[in-house]
Write a structure and sequence with these properties.
Number of helices: 21
Distance between the termini: 23 Å
Largest sheet: 7 strands, mixed
Strand content: 5-15%
CATH architecture of the largest domain: 3-Layer(aba) Sandwich
CATH class of the largest domain: Alpha Beta
Organism: Streptomyces shenzhenensis
CATH superfamily of the largest domain: Periplasmic binding protein-like II
Number of domains: 2
Family: Belongs to the bacterial solute-binding protein 1 family.
Keywords: Signal, Transport
Structural class: alpha/beta
InterPro entries: Bact_solute-bd_prot1, SBP
Shape: globular
Protein name: Sugar ABC transporter substrate-binding protein
Helix content: 40-55%
CATH topology of the largest domain: D-Maltodextrin-Binding Protein, domain 2
Number of strands: 13
Radius of gyration: 21 Å
Length: about 450
């Protein structure tokens, strides 16, 4: 699943990293220099989904750990199927020491398999002091804390072309109904309102989750995420009905439903920020900024910007997040040094390294916002941290993969079917419940 993107390293932060100075505008150290080199001669192996720019930026964090402790690091990219790759490594006697787990469901699976070490007292103290308690909850299984959420995504952001909204004479909306009204005005001015990436089912789960969290509230969201509430509940039907009004409105979606079902996530960003725009807005997480900047040369904050996903039907504006949790494997050859790495990742010092490199949000409230390289990223980070315990983790990432995370089946496929024909929300809710019941039972 495409969840993350990157921006540029600012000269101020680069200088701070190089010289061991403080983060721009903060009193917190960025460099990991000056450590006691207590782990010299040891190697920590780390596995995660990241590749390309993300892997390079994470390597900067690992290098800072090396500078501080003397430990060498080795990173292995797993691809999206983390559980299968890590399971095979454990069976082969070659388990990594630390895994960056991208889904709550996978962390829970690892814990239930007995693969994980509980986090050390030092790591737990840092988490209690620097993170909203909701992040401890998502990193815990049966009240035991196994995972540190080092990198987060803010998935309640609607990205837009300032030129498109200005040409239509509309401003960023504060409610869902205002957003649809603004979208119709944008459409009247010559562009479709939204580019929708219906070819990627995960984007549709994100649409649903934001509508549902705002409309139904956090308690029902939590119950639905754990399947304590059935998908046939009236609140689900209501959210699908709300979403269906957007999906079936040909004035709002670039190319209509058929085109949306043939548009992947990068393609949806291109339809707004590419050389030949077709739409004024695209909903997805903070990682839209990286695609708009890296692939289409947009200057974030000037010709690409965002507004928070607006409140639905008088509810509270939602803050849905995703994230990558660092866990320590019992079978790793150097689990003790791996735990030292997790302790380092729990500090604002470690988060500041990647924050300066771009393409990163930290849920650590002790990280000075001055560490981020641009105002828009600072704004998204402030929104995420400021939401505190009202943040809710991506619902599909909490579900069994057969329901919430597999192409061509479960929630992904059923919401694609709903995009194709949103005429019967109640029937779609029944199909979702049948698929969820089977996945949770299996």
């Amino acid at each position: 699943m495409m969840r993350r993107r990157t921006t540029l390293l600012t000269s101020c932060t680069a200088l701070a990293l190089a010289l061991g100075a403080t983060a721009c505008g903060s009193g917190e150290p960025v460099s990991a220099g000056g450590g006691d080199k207590a782990l010299s001669g040891q190697t920590v192996t780390v596995a995660g989904v990241w590749s390309g720019t993300e892997q390079k930026n994470f390597q900067k964090v690992l290098d800072a750990f090396t500078a501080k402790t003397g430990a060498k690091t080795q990173f292995m990219s797993t691809g999206d199927n983390v559980s299968t790759v890590v399971g095979s490594k454990i069976e082969g006697g070659n388990a990594p020491d630390v895994v960056m787990v991208p889904q709550v469901g996978v962390l829970q699976q690892f814990a239930e398999e007995g693969w994980l070490e509980p986090l050390s007292d030092t790591a737990q103290q840092s988490i209690d002091a620097g993170f909203a308690s909701v992040w401890r909850t998502y990193g815990s299984v049966d009240d035991t804390l196994y995972g540190l959420y080092f990198k987060a995504a803010h998935k309640s952001t609607v990205w837009y072309s300032p030129d498109a909204l200005a040409q239509a004479g509309v401003e960023a909306p504060s409610t869902y109904d205002e957003m649809l009204k603004a979208g119709r005005t944008v459409s009247d001015s010559g562009l479709a309102a939204f580019a929708v990436a219906g070819q990627d089912g995960w984007t549709l789960t994100d649409w649903f989750e934001n509508v549902y969290l705002s409309q139904a509230g956090p308690e029902k969201y939590d119950a639905l995420a754990t399947h304590e509430l059935k998908w046939t509940d009236p609140s689900v039907v209501e959210a699908l009905t709300t979403l269906g009004k957007l999906f079936k409105d040909k004035q709002l979606i670039a190319g209509g439903q058929k085109a949306a079902l043939n548009t992947d996530f990068p393609g949806s960003v291109e339809k707004v920020f590419g050389p030949e725009p077709e739409a004024g807005m695209v909903y997805e997480g903070d990682f839209v900024a990286g695609v708009a900047h890296d692939q289409f040369g947009r200057t974030i904050g000037e010709d690409a910007n965002f507004f928070p996903f607006p409140a639905v039907d008088g509810g509270t504006a939602p803050v849905v997040s995703g994230g990558d949790a660092a866990v320590v494997l019992k079978d790793g050859k150097n689990a003790k040094a791996g735990m030292k790495l997790v302790e380092f990742l729990a500090t604002p010092e470690a988060a500041a390294v990647w924050a300066g490199a771009g393409g990163f949000l930290s849920p650590n409230k002790k990280l000075d916002l001055g560490a981020y390289g641009d105002d828009v990223t600072r704004a998204t980070a402030e929104s995420l941290v400021g939401a505190g315990d009202s943040v809710r983790f991506d619902m599909s990432d909490q579900a069994p993969a057969a329901f919430g995370g597999t192409k061509g089946t479960g929630e992904w496929k059923l919401l694609q079917d709903f995009l194709r024909d949103p005429s019967d929300p109640k029937a779609t809710a029944a199909r979702l419940e049948a698929a969820a019941a089977k996945a949770y039972r299996d």
